[in-house]
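Intended use. Records like the one below are meant for learning the mapping from a protein sequence to its folded structure. Do not use them to infer anything beyond what is encoded.
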Amino acid sequence: MENTRTVRDALGELQIPAEAYYGAQTARAAANFPISGLRLPRAFIRAQGIVKWAAANAHKALGVMEARKANAICAAAQEVIDGRWDAQFIVDVYQAGAGTSQNMNANEVIAARAAELLGGQRGDTRLVHPNDDVNQSQSTNDTIHVAMNIAGLDLLAQRLNPALLILEQALQNKAAEFQSIVKAGRTHLQDAVPLRLGDEFGAYAENIRRHRLWLETAAASLLDIGMGGNAVGTGINTPPGFAELAVSFVRQYTGLAFRLASNPFTFHQNPDEVAWVSGALRNLALALQRIANDLRLLASGPRTGLGELQLPAVQPGSSIMPGKINPVMAEMLNMVVHQVLGCDMAITQAAGAGQLELNVMMPVMAANFLFEIEILTNAVNTFTERCVRGITAHPDTCRHHAERSLALATALNTAVGYDAASDIVKHAMQHNLTLREAALQRGVPEAALARALDVEALSLVTPRTLPTAPQDERAD
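Structure written out for the chain above:
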């Protein structure tokens, strides 16, 4: 065949494209697993490059690999990190258990490129061998897990956390902007006592802050990585000091505080930290869904809904109804939430599928984990920029609903009692009256109503007195 070259592995020879940097094991995996057309993402490939870069540097520092070869491997790994060879990573997400094919894809690409950098031919394993050199002191079982942690933590720290901070601030800005607007509260989707629209948005901002901090707490578990554990955690075939040194190079490259896992056997058996972080992402997604749903309700209308908010018009809403504008950014966010819930379920089930010394489901865990972070980040950024920042309020509509709310009867409790207030509400509903009109007909003095039904005063936050610490009886 033209434009091919011959490669070999333990099963024999096969032909691959002449321009390919991958080798026999990658080619076999591509043929064996034509499942989805999906590949592990750029973030994961980058993390694989970091793992190989760190290992080669550790071998050079320990004197177990000649500097020239180690430097070539590091240079080739850096090109992988930079994304130069992404097209050479061709293994499907749904592949051999644990990610052996994915690990060998990285080993073969880096080895082939390192051979070129040393002046040889692409794929000349006599110069740089994918197993003996690039994979030295490593196993699929530790490197795939480590790469998953590196990629996940990098995306969380560099992309999702900043996006959440921006959303939190945008919501807080709206809270300040809307602080003077009185509106009806609603519980059980029924009238409740009034509050300020600013307080409603302030609650959204605070909830994003809480979930961001909870996510940071969970994400810290990704810092424990089991470099050098090798096949089952014993560190077989690794020189003394390799694990600690390799982790130090990962820490140096990423600027993140990675540390050697305290128990390599636990690390190999249980990628549970990924499931924990995914659970935090799931909970964050549910919080985002709640905000999106609220905004859709508050902006419903424009004539037949609540109509208290106006969301930015970013595109026509209907192919048949002229002038219709839909809350498309909130709808998009809801769809992303549903996808994140599906990713989390896949991760949860895979995390529970480990057996004995290894969980072989790591490729599907990595794919879903990194995907949910990526789409959450993009959705939050878009939702903030194209929805939250442009939200406006309809103060007159908010106040109209607040003043017509029958839940204002709560404030009459102290003036006429619960039973009498209930009777006033019933009378108002039966005769389609405002609460004030019904109360007047039931004989409540105007002066009492003026005090009790002042929505401005009722919507203010009640001052709170923090409890004081108990005094030490022995103090003077």
